[in-house]
Structure formats: C-alpha cells, structure tokens
Amino acid sequence: MSSNQNRETRKAKCIACKKSAVVNIMNPFCEKCFLKHYEKRVGNLIKRFKLVSKGDKVLVAVSGGKDSLSCANVLSKLREKYDFELGILHIDVGIPECTNERTLNVVEGFCKEREIIFHFYDLSEFLGAGTSEVARFLRRPLCSLCGMLKRYVFNKFARENGYNKIATGHCADDIARFFFKNWISRDFLWISKLKPITVSAHPKVVTRIRPLYEMLETENLAYVQLQRIPIAGCSRCSYFLRKDKWYDVLRVIDEHKKDFKYNFVKALEVAEIHTRYERDFKECIRCGEPTDGEVCAVCRIKERYDRLKLSV
Ligand code: AMP
Ligand code: ZN
C-alpha cells in the first residue's frame, strides 16, 4: 500500500461501524468488521455454490502463502457448521525458493494449532530429483512443469487418501489472469472450468473447490495479517511473477478501477461458456491416473528425465 493510500485509510471510517478504518481495499473497514465481512463473503460463496456438504472430506492444498492459508483458515472455522472433515497437504516441489524447511514449519504449525490433519508430500522422492533440476534437464518452463506436477499430486493424493474434494487458494486475481491467458490462446475448455467448483467428470478425478474465488490477493494478505497467521514468503512464486505479464496488465487496470477483478469474477461465475470440446478422460497405461492420451504428461516427463539422466 502506498503512503497516500495509508493516509487515506487512516482518515476513513469503517463502513459498517464508523470506527477508524485499518483496511481500505474495496471499502474501508475496522479490523473486527473486515474479518467478519471477509469470512462472511467466503461463507456466502461456499453456501451459494454448495462447495461443501455434510460428511465431505476436504483436502486443502497449502503452499504456506497468504492465499492458501486464508482458504484453510476459513474452512477450519466452518468445519463444525457444515460437518465436514479437513486435511491439509503441503508439497515440497523441490524448488528451494518456493518450498523449504520454513514453508513446511509454517504449514505444520498452522495445522497443529487448529487440530487439522497434516500431510506432506516430497515431489523429489517421486521424481528422483527436484522440479528445478528436472525442468533444467528437460529444458521445460519451470512454472508450467511445477503446476502440472502439483495438479497430478493433488488429485492422486486426495483420492488415495479418501478425500472427495480438493480446495485450493486460487483467488480473483488468479482467476482473472487465467481467464485472459487462456482466452488469448483460445483454450475455452479451460475457461469453461474456471468456476468456484469443478465437479468430478471421472471416477478418478476429485472435485475441485475454490472458496476464495471472489477474494482479492490484497484482501487475503490483510486477512492473514489481521488474524496474525504466520505465512512463509510469497504465495506467488518468484518465477511466476517474473514471467507473467498478465499480472502487470491487471495491476494497471486495478489502479484505475479497484473493483474490476471482483466484478470480473462475479460475471464469470454466471457466464455460460460452451465449447465443442470436452475432455475425454482415459487412464494412463503406466500409472493409471486420468489423462487425455495413452500415457499421462507426468509419466512422460518421468520417462524422459530417467532416459536422459541415464545417457549422461
Ligand atoms: P500456484 O500454482 O502457485 O498458483 O498455486 C495455486 C494453488 O495451489 C495455491 O493456492 C495452493 O492451494 C496450491 N499450492 C501451490 N503450491 C503448493 C504446494 N507447494 N503445496 C500444496 N499446495 C500448493
Ligand atoms: Zn501416468
């Protein structure tokens, strides 16, 4: 927040109770009203889209950053109300700038404090090397490789451990960014799935929920700060930030219209995007995981890496 914005926030009054505001993102709020308003908005989305139901087993994928920890915190508060079970999965992706001892400690500590089941997955063990090394070796862009591997692990781990839903910390900023990127590359199938819930389309695919769909990154940051939740580094990995121009584009729009992203995702929630293509899931002939082709992308990566490694 700039010093001008800071000054403005100090002068502003909370729109709910008229006390001095401490946060002024879309509207000015005092601490208590901001937290209440934040949790109410996430709670309303969960209710409107029936993201959780009685008896669900929800696995939250937590990187240790502000978004996924905000998501896990709100879900932990709603456990009793909706009567569902909660577990957290933290993956060490083998990129020391993204996941390390500190991120692990932060996520584990968060779980302990709230009595949430904690799961840890070491991707290097699965791959035989860290994602950085595999990406370098295969000359693959690190971010897309990391994202692909994480999605594979989320689904496989959740299903094998009896979870019927996976929650991620994707927020309005991510959704808007994905939208523009995929719109330009005409990946309408991806866009049609960008909703608060993507219901399983195959017995081996676990339903995805995005409870922070309407929340802004800045709101998530304020939420963890005001809740005094320790976070590890930045939730958005440095590689991603450097490469993604959509981040800059949206930041500029934001400067002119601070409710743009919020109104954008609200519109996307109700938009009906039809596409001629549908994913026709098969099962990978190597690992049995759902895929479009014969051999899934992860098995292909592993095989190429093992082959190249052997040849040096
Ligand atoms: P990203 O791919 O970094 O944009 O992260 C998208 C979402 O994936 C986050 O909001 C988290 O829910 C989840 N996530 C990212 N990194 C990890 C990780 N290392 N372990 C577990 N979940 C993660
Ligand atoms: Zn496979």
Please characterize this protein's 3D structure.
It is a single chain. With 312 residues, the chain is an alpha/beta fold. It is built from 14 helices and 10 strands. The strands form 3 sheets. Strands 5-4-3-6-8-7 form a 6-stranded mixed β-sheet, with helices on both faces. The protein has a two-stranded antiparallel ribbon with strand order 1-2. A hairpin with a 6-residue loop joins strand 9 (282-283) and strand 10. The radius of gyration is 20 Å and the shape is globular. The mean pLDDT is 91. Bound molecules: adenosine monophosphate and zinc ion. Adenosine monophosphate (AMP) binds at residues 61-63, 67-68, 89-91, 93, 99, 147, 150, 168-170, 174, 237.
Give a brief rundown of this model.
The chain is of the alpha/beta class. It is built from 14 helices and ten strands.
Query: What fraction of residues sit in β-strands?
Result: 5-15%
**How many beta strands in the DSSP annotation?**
10
Ligands (ions, cofactors included): adenosine monophosphate, zinc ion
Average residue pLDDT: 91
Tally of contiguous helical segments: 14
Query: How would you sum up the global shape?
Result: globular
Rg, rounded, reads: 20 Å
Query: Helix/strand-derived class?
Result: alpha/beta
Query: What is the terminal separation in angstroms?
Result: 50 Å
